[in-house]
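Sample entry follows:

_____
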Amino acid sequence: MGFFGKYWKIDGVTASFITRGTENGQYRILFERENASLEQIEGINWARPVIEKLTDRDCEQGLPDGYGFEVVDITYANNTRSYTVTVQTAQQYLGDVTEYQAQVAELTGRNEEQQDAIAAQEREIATLRDQLAEADELAIALYEGQAAAGNTSGENNVGEETVE
């Protein structure tokens, strides 16, 4: 009978406790020798372990989901007949992201459509500015032409009355 209990299975190897280590992202896992051999512990795929909780106690802390780990140290304590494995988080796995990939592709397509629409609107604005500049030039030319025509056809002073 074990001294610490059976609370976790990591890649099928029974573990007792999982606690935080002294450094950020570090965890310590206690394996009792009667439940796990050194060969079994070393055989765990720490890069992507399958972690199963054996108890429904909420107070038990486990390894964070979606992470891979690197083994930092394995020590054996003869008085408790247990191995303590210190692991460090290595990589985070996102799991199945196909739904997000489809969403990203859809949003990318929408973005390209919007960029095309913006480019078309910018071309239309440039065309309208050119037309406005031409209309301004035409209005100025007409005004100057009318002013010149008014001065040559006789003097028509505003505000003066003619006597007969």
